What does this fold into?
Amino acid sequence: MNIETILTNSIVEAIKSLYNHETSPEKIQLQKTRKEFEGDFTLVVFPFLQVSRKRPEDTAQEIGTYLAANQPVISSFNVVKGFLNLAIAPGYWIELLQNIDNDEKWGITPVTEQSPLVMVEYSSPNTNKPLHLGHIRNNLLGYALSNIIAANGNKVVKTNIVNDRGIHICKSMLAWQKWGNGETPASSGKKGDHLIGDYYVAFDKHYKAELTELMEKGMSKEEAEAASPLMAEAREMLVKWEAGDKEVRALWEQMNNWVYEGFDETYKRLGVDFDKIYYESDTYLVGKETVLGGLEKGIFYRRPDDSVWADLSGDGLDEKLLLRSDGTSVYMTQDIGTAQLRFRDYPIDKMVYVVGNEQNYHFQVLSLLLDKLGFSWGKGLVHFSYGMVELPEGKMKSREGTVVDADDLMDEMIATARETSQELGGKLDGLTPEEAADINRIIGLGALKYFMLKVDARKNMLFNPKESIDFNGNTGPFIQYTYARTRSIERKAAEAGFSIEGMPTSISEKECSIIRMLNEFPSVIRQAGTDYSPSGIANYAYELAKEYNQFYHDFSILREEDAAVKSFRIKLTRNVGKVIKSAMNLLGIEVPERM
It folds into this structure.
C-alpha cells in the first residue's frame, strides 16, 4: 500500500471519529506539500468545514492531532490557514524504499484480460519522399504515448496508415518513367525512400519550368496550371491506377516496395515499431463505398459536376468534399474507410490519432462524419494534436533544400555526440571502437528524443542539435549519464565484494526527498496517461536525476564507513537507476551502462 493510500484511509477514519461523518476516499484532497512549507503531503480541509462546524485552522489542527496520535507514519504536522501539512517519519521512507526495491516494475500497471484496448496511430508517411523532421516528432510522440498508455494497464495496438496512393505518388512515378533511365536503389546506392523523393523533386522542378514557359506565352498562373501537360499526365496516371491498369499498378508496387525498405531502416534506427500497418490503397475503397452509402441515405449530396460533399453548416462548420468529380477519393474518404477497417479488426475501446495541429479541423470533421454515418465510436475519437518543430536556420542543410530528412538528422546527432565525447575526453577510454560507436549512437539519439519529448507536445518547438547534447541541464545525456553513474556505483560495490545487509535507523532529509520522488513515479505515469503527456515523464526523469546528483556530490556512498548506511545508499542508488531506466524506456530512450 503506498503512502497516499495509507494517509487517505487514515483521514477517512479521522473524519468519522472526530465528526461522526462518513466520507469517501475520493473526496480527500491530498497534495504534495509546496516547497516553501514544511511537510510531505498537504490535506485541503475546506470540504470538511460543514461537518466540523469550525474555522479552517481549528479543523486542520483537530485532524492533525488525531492523525499524529493514531497513524505512526506521521512524525509531525503544521497548519497554514485551511491546509494541514503532514510530515512522514524517516523510518517509513526506509520501509518504502524496500518495497520499491522489491518491485521490479515499480509504477507500471500490469495488463489483464479485462484491460481496455487502445489503438494509437502515428507516423502516417507518404510513399513519395523520405521521413523528415516533422515525422521524427510524430513517431517519437506516438511511440512514447503508446508506452505510457500501456504502462497504465491498457492493451495497446500501435498502428500506421501509409498514404501510398494519390496524385503525389503519381508525380514520383511519372518522373521516374520520364527521367529515371531504369535507376534503382541497388544501381544508385541510395535508400529507396531517398531515391523516390528525388523523383518527386524532379517532377516539381519540371512542372515549375513548364508553368513559367506557359506564363511567358501570356497565360495567367491559374490558366497555366490548368493547361500543364505534365500535371495532366499525372492525373491520367491516377485515373489509370484507380481503374486497376496493370502497367501502372506494377510500377506503383515496385516503387512503393523500394520506399518501404527505406522506411523500415529509418524506423528501426529511430527505435519505433508498429503492430499493424494499414495502407490507403486498401482503405480508400471502403471509405468510398461508405460515402456512396451515405449519399443514398441523404447524409451527403452530389453537386452538378458529380462531386460528393457533406454539408456541416448545421454543426457550425462548412461543406466538405468527399469524392472528386472524377470519382477519386480524398484524405477524408480514406480516413473514414480506415476507421471502419480498424474497428472491424480490433475490439477498440479508444482510438488515438497522433497528427499535427494543422489537422485539427480535419479530425473535428472526421469525428462528426463518422457519427452521422451511424458509427457509435465516432465522437469518442481522440486527436493528439501537436505543434510543429523547426531547426535553427543554418544548422543543417537538407537534401531538398527545404525539409530536413530523418536520416540526415540522426546522422548529425550521432556525429555531434561523437564530437562532444572527444571534447570531454576520456569518457569512453577502454572501450572497443564498436562499443564507443554504440554509446555515441545511444547518446546522440537519446539527446534527439529527449529534447523532442520534454516540451509540451501542443507547443511549437525549436530543436537545437548542439544544445540537446549538453551533458548538463535538462537534456537526455545528463539523465543518461546519471543512470551510468548509478550502474558504476553498483559495479564497484559488487567488485569490492560488499553485500547489502541491514538498514540505518535514520536517514537525511535529502535521502527522504529522493525516496519521496521514487514514490511519485506511479502517479507521474498515471498523470501522463490521463493528460497524454510524454513531457511529464521526461521532466520527472530530469528532476530525479538532478536530485540524485546533488545527493551524490554531498554524501559518501562507497566510502561511507557505517555498513548499514552504506547498504542503504547503494540500495537507494540502485532504485534511482531502475526508475530512471524505466522512465526513459517509456520515452523510447536507451540508457548506456557506462558513459
